Amino acid sequence: MLFSSCPLWKTLFFISLAVFLAEFTEIGAFASPGECESATTDDVNESLECQLVGAVIIHTQIICKQLPPCPLPPAPRNGGLVCVTIDNDQYCKPMCNKGYDFQFLRRSRLYEVCGNATGFSWTTQLVGEKALAVCNPSETAISGAKSAYFPTNSTCLRTLAFTETQTEQLNIFLKELGEQGIDGSNRDKEADCIICGY
């Protein structure tokens, strides 16, 4: 494969793909994940939409270094997760794209955590669920803190496409954790991660 020997080309390819997918997501050009999950092999081979959804899922799992005992949390559809690992605890902040809001009130619940103190299970308001949050269509964003929404001119996929916007969201989250008494000095920077839903 053309890109197999050069990590830079792989990175540029996936950044381009993320921007491309962000544009398609905004106009609703994708098949729903359910349509892709129930598709036959022939359907998927013929459907660029399902192949692209699959590429995003594979890509987000590759770039996120997961704390081994903790399961990889699925990012909310129409949003994402900003995650950091500090002192062997993984913290993830659910975020929604513009035009979506959380299913439950999250103003005082900025993040979810997985680590030794939680028995290596994610804290979540969604009983029996693997998801940390759900982003539902909404004209007003009132359920979460102001920083729990991607900027008006952006989406999770656009944030993921640019190092500057990734760093900005990670720094906002680290500042918020610090304000809650969580010292980020023992942070595993290689585990910093933004996961986008599809």
Quote the beta fraction. 5-15%
How would you spell out the order of helices and strands? HHHHEEEEEHHE
Strand order of the largest sheet: 4-2-1-6
Spatial extent as radius of gyration: 17 Å
> What is the distance, rounded to the nearest whole angstrom, between the alpha carbons of the first and last residues?
26 Å
How would you describe the oligomerization state of the chains in this entry?
Answer: single chain
Task: Note the total helix count.
Answer: 6
Structural class: alpha+beta
Overall, the morphology is: globular
Largest sheet data: 4 strands, antiparallel
Assign a percent range to the helix content.
25-40%
Low-confidence stretches: 1-10, 24-62
Summed up, what is this model?
This protein has 198 residues and is an alpha+beta fold. The protein is 35% helix and 15% strand. Residues 1-10 and 24-62 have low confidence and may be disordered.
Model description:
The structure is a single chain. The chain is 35% helix and 15% strand. It starts with 6 loop residues before the first helix and ends with a strand. It has helices at 7-26, 33-37, 41-46, 48-63, 156-161, 163-179, and strands at residues 79-86, 89-96, 100-102, 112-114, 135-137, 193-196. Strand 1 and strand 2 (89-96) form a beta hairpin. It has 6 helices and 6 strands, in the order H-H-H-H-E-E-E-E-E-H-H-E. The strands form 2 sheets. The protein has a 4-stranded antiparallel β-sheet with strand order 4-2-1-6. Strands 3-5 form a two-stranded antiparallel ribbon. The protein has 198 residues and is α+β, with helices and mostly antiparallel strands. Residues 1-10 and 24-62 have low confidence and may be disordered.
